[in-house]
Amino acid sequence: MHCHLRWDFVWQRPQQIFSRLAADHPVLFVEDPVAGDGEPQLELSEPFANVVRMVPRLPHGAPADVDDQWRLLLPLMEQALQNHPLLAGRFHAPVQWFYSPMSAPVLLGRFGARGTVYDCMDELANFRFAPSDITDRERFLLSRADVVFTGGYQLYESKSRHHPTVHFHGCGVDVGHFGRARLASTVVPARVAELPGPVFGYVGVVDERLDYPLVEALAREFPDASVVMAGPLAKVEQADLPDLPNLHWLGQQSYESLPALVKGFDVCLMPFALNDATRYINPTKTLEYMAAGKPVVSTAVADVVRNFTPVVEVARTTGEFLDAVAHAAREPDPALLREGIARAMEASWESTVATMRGELLDAVLPVRAAQAGAL
After folding, report:
1. Half-sphere exposure at residue 362, Cβ-oriented, CA atoms within 13 angstroms
2. Per residue in 156-213, pLDDT tens?
């Protein structure tokens, strides 16, 4: 599996899917190269049962071209698959699963692969600092993939124009995990429990997809409340974030700690900017908030409007957002909270992954059988 996200970053779609597929299949999680010293090398570890993490390290002075980098690493990867104790004999005729198209021109079809999946969770070309050729690389991958999955319905509509076998699989949720926020025994961490209430909270990556003027407006409108933003920074700097006494940037949190953190929120926030980077998103956190039994207020992200209203209150202006947060904190709707929990219970990652696995086998096995018969 080829992924632009780090296994130990925010626990999201790739980790949710492959931690479950690993129950039946060995997984090799190949990350993008990072800088290293000395000769090119591969760092291999097993961070989760039946999941091997591969972190390629390239020395200073390595080729700047992405294809040249992967060509340099390819012999090391082939050798590791044959000889390394964590890999040898475990990956016969694997399926290659891509989250990013960047490595596809060099790695697609290698390692004796019997099939190719493209799981498109975002429109990466719209993200800040996206490589200039990522769209061309995606076209290459789409032209050769056996099956395409998308994490959002807008993405499904877009990619269906370029591939005959596309399936939409939006957010799943670990209901048992996030449902801990509804348990009396779950203890809210002191750094949230001791804040003045009400507490308006966000959990997720802090990047160009957030509407920072909106977050600042919320903190200014309710100076006696607390606004909590919990998540790692990506492609933004701390100095560029709003800085107010009642606005708390907590940084990255462990996946294990999230239910207790969310339990301390009176209202869960999805303050996304409406820009190119959010045009196709279908936030995983939506169902996680719902499983926690919390009221949710979001900006008008297309997939949220389509998939989660009226459980999620959608605001189309700053004023609407501030009013919706105030109302949700003052008078949360018990019926909508119950509906949110019920919808979360129907959207488990287990059922999503089982369906994806079946669609993958339906797409890959007949193609490979036909090719074998033609030889």
Report:
1. 10
2. 999 999 999 999 998 899 999 999 999 999 999 999 999 999 999 999 999 999 999 9
Contact 209, 180 (CB under 8 A): no
Nearest-angstrom CA–CA distance, 40 and 191: 42
pLDDT of 370: 46
Instruction: Report how far residue 332's alpha carbon sits from residue 255's, in angstroms, rounded to the nearest whole number.
Output: 26
How many residues can be counted in the chain?
375
Q: Sign of torsion, CA 172 108 278 266?
A: positive
Greatest alpha-carbon pair distance for the chain in Å reads: 73
Closest CA to 263 of 357, 185, 205: 185
* Of the candidates 18, 281, 13, 233, the residue with the CA atom closest to the CA atom of residue 124: 281
- Alpha-carbon distance values, 190 to 179, 202, 224, 227, 371 (Å): 20, 17, 18, 15, 60
Q: Would you state the structure tokens that stand for residue 112, as one six-digit string?
A: 């004796």
Give me 206's structure tokens: 């802090």
CA–CA separation, 328 vs 323, rounded Å?
Answer: 9
The pTM (predicted TM-score) of the whole model is 0.85
**For residue 166, which phi and psi values (nearest 5 degrees)?**
-120, 135
Residue 55 DSSP one-character state: E
Helices (H), 128-237: 134-144, 153-159, 175-178, 190-193, 212-221
- The per-residue pLDDT for range 312-345, each reduced to its tens digit, is 999 999 999 999 999 999 999 999 999 999 999 9
Q: What is the dihedral of CA 116, 119, 120, 121, to 10 degrees?
A: -160
Under 8 Å between Cβ of 282 and 153: yes
SS3 (DSSP) at 311: coil
Q: Regarding beta strands 34-36 and 247-249, do their DSSP bridges make them parallel or antiparallel, or are they unpaired?
A: unpaired
